[in-house]
Design a protein that fits this description.
heterotrimer; A: 217 residues; alpha/beta; Rossmann fold; 12 strands; B: 316 residues; mainly alpha; 12 helices; globular; ABC_transpr_LolD-like (chain A); ABC_transporter-like_CS (chain A)
């Protein structure tokens, strides 16, 4: 699904070198590393948000195609759950409106998938008619995951799903990840090692010792 | 309901303040015939005014009594007697108000639609592009009466496409044939001027609001969720800028009313602006004061309506 | 100063340059004036020529000289009115936050003045009161401080609730300590407000002149525009090209340039 070799991302004078990353279909891969080591940058790169001058690679393929050939259509196949998931909901749209929006973008009418997802993530259907400002952080996080999965993506990117939420929500998210492992390919970053180890099949280390900070151009 | 009560109290306070301003302003201005600061010169100036003036204002009585008298007059709808028109001020204003509201209302509606549409389009475009707005900023820099005179020069006199004054042709009555068409024909130029002068403010504000929302994280999420452009524009952008836009429209409506008055003065359009022009030219104090009070009250009402709308929209 | 210059975009630098030009023209312009602006001994209604660069008006004044004198008056009006209203508005904004009880009262007062169209009040004052330059400037200051107040207050209130200031007040710091802390965050707003008010003052003056109010003896651009518009053949010949246009362009450019400088994308 994803093949990356020889990737480097540049930040002003700093250069971040990445190890080779390979994610097969159905795998759940975790990226571990200290904060600031380029975990989110990796996602930015994969999502096409970095300008051409900010990176260089030998090989980078997404679903068999070179990354540079992918445009906005990549979001039909990929779902990204950002680090800011808790401010990712439109404050002026009710939850069911979010669901409707995602479904109509996929060209599907709702037929219980949303309810199913909510149930799996331990979210009550009562939340459908609420505005995001009335929800807790943990609820918002899980709703964003639900919305992302509603698209039925082939790839799921999760950026630091374990930060800034309570232990119970963490547990529920973990259980959900276990339930979709195998059917959905997952790439996840986290700086909390224990969570990552429980969630994914294998871990790619971004920083070996001090490597991440030392590379200067 | 509690919020409603608070709003009523606040606006009641504002109304009182407006009445006070209307009452005290002429009395504290140096050189005014009602001035309490320099009573000698003031009473000298008073000699020039007819009895109706003195009766209405009663400057010989103490201030408190004057104020109560003023309130009493207002409650019975008496705004005094115009020095130039030799008629009741309330009547003169009553006849003209309709035209002004028509012009201002139409102008506001059209320029809001165009302004918001244009501002959002410009704001949604990739990257920031304030250069696109410079023609609007330039347009906004032209004082509205100059815009009016320039268009009048070009379209009425040089090209003779449109009439240069009045709301309808001489000799026409509301019952005449083609009256409505005639009124519309006469309205084209003043309306165009008003629209041109209101659009920049609204468009630039909408642009800024849109750009601000564009930077929000939930908008990025909409992209990640692969939502359609239509939904992003309607529900993400429009809904989020709406409260701010309403706030801006509230202020803009009032400056539109003021601008309409200037345009009317230029085109001799029979609205309040024409009254203002004659009043200032002839130092017709009662008429001016009546106009001031009317427009201020109108502004208060408009503001209250928008305030209410914003509150309704912001319920979450 | 260097820091401010480097933060401006290219367009804004051009605009700042134009502002400086206006200022210099106000300071030194009358030196280049071929005739005293109120000298009407020249033949009337001459088209532009070598002696009268922009021709003469119907009374015989040299139009070019009048345009030049306009720079001085414009600067006078806009700088003093801006200085006055920004000072008054900022001081009141600070007072309303530092003394919360009278703050509410001032806020209501400012809101009323914001709801009412300020140009109307200024017109009213100019019509009622003695038509002197001082009165015009005073009324501009008096009726436009609420706009400054509103913006300054919202900016200062964000600063007030910041930890720095809350701490200063907690440890019993006096007013001057708080002011010093606020100044650091607040001064960019003052610059913006100043330019905003300066451009509004010119629009006010021009509108007042149009209505025949304000001091009739001062040769401002507003007055020049009004005379041009009142000229009996205004609509029929081409006199407006050199009579109306120069003053009009001067006013429009000044206001537009200040608006561009004040324009801050994304700030509502």
């Amino acid at each position: 699904m994803i093949e990356i070799q020889g990737l480097s991302i540049f930040y002003g004078k700093r250069k971040l070198a990445y190890p080779d990353i390979s994610v097969k279909k159905g795998e759940a891969v975790g990226i571990a590393g200290k904060s600031g080591c380029g975990k989110t940058s990796l996602f930015s790169f994969l999502l096409g948000e970095l300008p051409d001058s900010a990176f260089s690679y030998e090989r980078a393929e997404l679903l068999g195609r070179d990354l540079s050939l992918w445009g906005m259509e990549r979001f039909e196949k990929i779902s990204y759950i950002p680090q800011f998931a808790q401010s990712a909901l439109n404050p002026r749209m009710k939850v069911w409106e979010h669901i409707d929006a995602v479904l109509s973008a996929c060209g599907r009418r709702g037929s219980g998938e949303a309810e199913e997802l909510f149930q799996k993530l331990a979210l009550s259907e009562e939340l459908f008619s609420r505005y995001p400002s009335t929800l807790s952080g943990g609820q918002k996080q899980r709703i964003v995951i639900a919305l992302a999965m509603l698209k039925e993506p082939e790839l799921l990117f999760m950026d630091e799903p374990s930060s800034a939420i309570d232990f119970i929500t963490l547990r529920r998210i973990l259980e959900y990840i276990w339930s979709i492992k195998g059917t959905t390919t997952i790439l996840m970053t986290a700086h909390q090692r224990p969570f990552l180890e429980k969630a994914v099949d294998r871990i790619v280390e971004l920083s070996e010792g001090e490597k991440c900070w030392k590379s200067e151009m | 309901m509690k919020r409603g009560g608070k709003m009523v109290r606040t606006y009641g306070l504002y109304l009182v303040l407006i009445l006070c301003i209307s009452f005290f302003l002429p009395r504290f201005l140096p050189g005014s015939p009602l001035s309490v600061l320099d009573e000698a010169t003031a009473s000298q100036n008073m000699e020039a005014f007819p009895d109706t003036f003195r009766e209405y204002y009663a400057p010989e009585k103490p201030e408190a009594v004057q104020f109560l008298l003023y309130l009493k007059h207002l409650l019975s709808g008496d705004l005094g007697y115009s020095l130039t028109g030799k008629r009741k001020v309330a009547d003169m204003i009553g006849e003209s108000l309709g035209y002004s509201l028509l012009l201002a209302g139409l102008a506001m509606t059209v320029s809001t639609c165009i302004g918001v549409w244009y501002g959002m389009r410009a704001g949604l475009k990739e990257g920031s592009s304030p250069v696109r707005l410079f023609p609007l900023i330039l347009l906004q820099a032209v004082p509205v009466f100059l815009l009016a005179e320039s268009l009048r020069l070009l379209f009425s006199y040089r090209l003779s496409w449109f009439p240069s004054r009045g709301a309808y042709s001489v000799g026409m009555h509301p019952s005449s044939e083609g009256f409505l068409l005639d009124v519309l024909y006469h309205m084209v130029l003043p309306l165009t001027v008003m629209i041109l002068s209101e659009i920049p403010g609204i468009a630039v504000f909408t642009y800024n609001s849109t750009v601000r929302i564009k930077k929000q994280q939930f908008v990025r999420m909409a992209v990640y969720l692969n939502l359609t452009q239509n939904i992003i524009e309607k529900k993400y952008f429009f809904r989020n800028i709406l409260p701010e836009i309403l706030g801006k429209l509230s202020i803009q409506s009032i400056s539109c009313v003021a601008g309409t008055m200037f345009v009317e003065a230029v085109f001799a359009y029979p609205g309040i602006g024409m009254l203002l022009r004659t009043a200032t030219a002839n130092r017709d104090y009662p008429l001016m004061q009546g106009i001031l009070l009317t427009v201020c009250t109108l502004a208060l009402v408009i503001n209250a309506i928008f305030e209410f709308l914003i509150q309704q929209i912001s319920r979450r | 100063m260097k820091k401010i210059w480097s933060r401006l975009s290219a367009v804004q630098r051009i605009c700042a340059g134009i502002c400086i030009f206006y200022f210099l023209a106000a300071a030194f312009g009358p030196i280049f004036s071929p005739f005293p602006p109120d000298d009407f001994s020249s033949p009337a209604l001459l088209p532009p020529g070598r002696v009268h660069l922009l021709g003469t008006d119907e009374m015989g004044h040299d139009i070019f000289s009048m345009v030049l004198s306009g720079f001085r008056y414009t600067m006078l009006f806009s700088l003093t009115a801006a200085l006055g209203s920004v000072s008054l508005g900022t001081v009141l904004a600070f007072a309303s936050l530092y003394f919360p009880r009278i703050g509410r009262g001032i806020n209501h007062l400012a809101t009323v003045f914001l709801i009412i169209p300020d140009i109307l009040l200024i017109l009213f004052v100019a019509a009622f009161a003695a038509p002197t330059c001082t009165n015009t400037i005073l009324s501009m200051i008096f009726f436009s401080w609420p706009r400054v107040f509103r913006i300054a207050r919202s900016r200062l209130s964000a600063c007030f609730s910041s930890n720095k200031v809350a701490y200063t007040m907690l440890i019993g710091g006096n007013m001057w300590d708080v002011i010093r802390k606020l100044w650091h965050d607040g001064y960019p707003v003052i610059g913006t407000l100043f330019m905003m008010q300066a451009s509004r003052a010119v629009t006010y003056e021009t509108t007042l002149a149009f209505f025949g109010l304000g001091d009739p003896l001062l040769k401002t651009w507003g007055r020049l525009i009004r005379s041009a518009l009142n000229y009996e053949n205004f609509f029929y010949d081409n006199t407006w090209c050199w009579y109306l246009l120069p003053a009009m362009i001067c006013v429009v450019v000044y206001v537009a340039v200040l608006s561009v400088l004040v324009f801050d994308e994304g700030k509502v």
